[in-house]
Amino acid sequence: MGNIVVVGTQWGDEGKGKVVDILAEFVDVVVRFQGGNNAGHTIVVEGEPLVLHQIPSGVLHPRKRCVVGNGVVVDPKVLLEEIQGLESRGVKVSPENLIISEAAHLIMPYHRALDLARERAAGKGAIGTTGRGIGPAYEEKVGRRGIRMVDLRDSQILKKKIQDQLKEANLQLKERYGEKPFSVKEVVEEYLGFGERLLPFLTNTSVFLDQEIKAGRSLLFEGAQGTFLDLDHGTYPYVTASNTVAGNACVGAGVGPTRIHGVLGIVKAYTTRVGAGPFPTELQDELGENLREKGKEFGATTGRPRRCGWLDMVLVRDAVRLNGITDLAVTKLDVLGGLPSLKICVAYEYKGKRLEEVPCSLEVFSKCVPVYEELKGWEEEINYARDMEELPKNAQRYIRRIEELADVPVALVSVGATRNDTVMVQNPCKRG
Ligand code: IMP
Fold first, then answer.
1. Which atom of ligand 1 is nearest to the CA of 39?
2. Which of 130, 134, 228 to probe ligand 1 with, by most ligand atoms within 8 A of CB?
3. Does 132 contact ligand 1 (Cβ within 6 A)?
4. What is the CATH number of the domain that holds 213?
5. Strands 48-52 and 41-45, bridge-based pairing
6. Closest by alpha carbon to 133, among 114, 148, 120, 149?
7. Please, are residues 221 and 2 in contact by the beta-carbon 8 Å criterion?
8. Residues with catalytic annotation?
9. Nearest to residue 229, comparing CAs of 35, 86, 374, 430?
């Protein structure tokens, strides 16, 4: 069995949490490699939704190891709350099943404050971030001023680094945005407190993963957000502050590219986006609203209504190329039930020219008009289907068309929210 990366092929919220939760049964270790608590991976267990923000979605499986890699930015306050929330639901979280990279960077309270203040100040030009401090935390990392988990081990180093960061952050917060400054003493005390509780979880996760690989165990790398929120390849600047594509699994977890054997791309059967930025297939009408209601398309992290639209295969095709996708999982197919016909965007038109790829220029992208293909819909409820043959013929055609346009086989189709509501065509963790 090989090691696989699971990534979103759209703008996030493709249903990665459910798919990872299902596949976790077939692997030994689940690894987060980028992003932070801007992610919201929803899993429905025994009818109850559970949202995970920083802990990998494998945590619900006993005896699986979960790893938060060096590429993740960790908000320790939120992480401790998440651990507590899981424990209150009977899921034990200890260094036995969760380890965190010493090299992961910390999100500080002033990162959150700066994120919110900048968005407020940007007015109409705001990116629509989740307000969790993700951008400012990665900025400090790239600026080589970041504070890492390992710094929680030494109060003097931690204090010095917080002092240095706060010199700049307080200046900006106070002078530029008219916000309250933070006290070094309070932040140091708070973070030393978090450190006491989190130190047992810290280790060199790259070494751990290497040992697991050598012992013949299998890994699943759980991507957060989606391909078009990638800092380099997404719809910049309306993106997140990390690389979300599969290649970053290596950097963000400290494993070499030869260790990865497959990439599973998650495609929601339609498209959604939270936050600002162009969205060619967006439906700003009743149909869009119906998709939002039926698909419960409200942000798992912020509760914001998601923008909804038709499936855009230009995005998915680009995602196949950018991630080297070997298999696809189509999610939320049930949400499309009851519509007489369905549209799939197969290309864009810009000033009379046909475009087959997402253009780099946001100016051009925002003026792209989708070229649609129309397929017949289906009336039947499909949650019961466990086999492709049990899906209505038109639903099967929809899946086949996705495979043709992406030139990648569909390995799994999700037909409802729970683990059971799934058609497993070819388990990507059991292949070759
Ligand atoms: P940030 O990651 O909070 O800086 O937000 C940057 C952009 O990424 C905004 O448009 C967010 O709505 C979007 N974003 C961040 N995380 C997610 C996610 O998990 N799902 C969907 N969109 C996200």
1. 19
2. 130
3. yes
4. 3.40.440.10
5. antiparallel
6. 114
7. no
8. 13, 41
9. 35
| Ligand 1 centroid to residue 326 C-alpha, Å | 25
Q: Which long-range contacts (CB under 8 A, 24 or more apart) does 400-404 make?
A: 401/344, 401/373, 401/375, 402/267, 402/311, 402/313, 402/316, 402/328, 402/330, 402/344, 403/328
Strand 271-273 versus strand 307-309 pairing type: antiparallel
Lowest mean pLDDT among 13-22, 153-162, 183-192, 350-359: 13-22
Provide the domain count of the chain: 3
Q: Whose CA is nearest to atom 8 of ligand 1?
A: 240
Quote the domain boundaries for residue 56: 4-102+201-263
Cα(112) to ligand 1 centroid in Å equals: 14
Cβ atoms within 10 Å, residue 31? 31
Check if 275 has its Cβ closer than 6 Å to any atom of ligand 1.
Answer: yes
Same domain, 139 and 150: yes
Question: Which domain-ending residue is among 263, 294, 313?
Answer: 263
Cβ(385)–Cβ(302) below 8 Å: no
Would residue 162 count as lying in a domain? yes
pLDDT tens track for 277-302: 999 999 999 999 999 999 999 988 88
- Report pLDDT digits (tens) over 176-212: 999 999 999 999 999 999 999 999 999 999 999 999 9
Mutate to test the pocket of ligand 1, among 34, 274, 308 (most ligand atoms within 8 A of CB): 274
Residue 147 Cα to ligand 1 middle (Å): 22
- Same domain, residue pair 238 and 271: no
Task: Round to whole Å and give the CA distance between 75 and 66.
Answer: 17
pTM over 0.90: yes
**Contact call for residues 34 and 252 (beta carbons, < 8 A):** yes
Is residue 181 domain-shared with residue 233, that is, in the same domain?
A: no
Whether 419 is in a domain gets the answer: yes
Element (H, E) at 73: strand 73-74
For residue 121, being part of any structural domain is answered with yes
Last-in-domain residue among 150, 168, 198: 198
178, 221: one domain? no
Domain membership of residue 431 (yes or no) is no
CA atoms within 13 A on the CB side of 59: 29
Instruction: For residue 366, report the distance from its CA to the centre of ligand 1, in Å.
Output: 19
Q: Tell me, yes or no, whether 351 and 318 share the same domain.
A: yes
